[in-house]
Specification:
Elements (H helix, E strand, L loop, with lengths): L5 H4 L16 E7 L4 H16 L6 H18 L15 E7 L3 E8 L17 H11 L2 E6 L7 E8 L5
Antiparallel strand pairs: 1-2, 2-3, 3-5, 4-5
């Protein structure tokens, strides 16, 4: 087991863009509570992390995408009944991973339903717009169900970074 958080990345390996998890230069993650303030917490965590990694210039795009992914996870990924799983496992988790010229944000939630851009005539409907925004601001995105003992799925978005000249 690598000491650089690679065990944490294990469930993120499948279905991610072809990036070598061993080559991650930075990784950070935070657990998010199942309430809407979590979106603000996710943004603050993202800002602190990107500043630390010295890629604050991508903050606006990344933050917008993180907000959408977390909102979607809270809105669609949580069971509506109160039959939640073990208390000590937060239902939603945000992972930020950085390679030299790539940043991946991945949001894990307990639902197996695929995130689909919904066709809707109701223009006030938020649901379909979120993934459209993700698609517009990220350089790529996708999702996959988690394997093994972990329930749910991961939705990820990829950003290309300028290499530090």
């Amino acid at each position: 087991m690598g000491t650089n958080g690679s065990t944490m990345l294990e469930p993120l390996r499948q279905g991610l863009p072809p990036l070598d998890p061993a080559a991650v230069s930075n990784a950070a993650s935070c657990a998010l509570p199942a309430r809407y303030e979590a979106v603000r917490e996710a943004r603050q965590f993202t800002r602190r992390t990107l500043d630390q990694w010295d890629i604050g210039d991508r903050f606006d795009d990344v933050c917008l995408v993180v907000s959408e992914l977390v909102t979607n996870a809270l809105r669609h990924g949580l069971p509506t009944s109160n039959g939640h799983g073990p208390e000590h496992i937060p239902p939603v988790r945000l992972h930020l991973m950085r390679w030299t010229e790539r940043l991946v944000c991945a949001v894990r939630d307990p639902s197996h339903d695929s995130p689909v851009a919904r066709d809707t005539d109701d223009f006030s409907a938020e649901s379909g717009r979120g993934l459209f925004l993700v698609d517009s601001f990220a350089d790529g995105w996708g999702w996959h169900p988690l394997a093994g003992t972990l329930n749910g799925k991961v939705v990820w978005a990829l950003f290309r970074l300028q290499s530090a000249e």
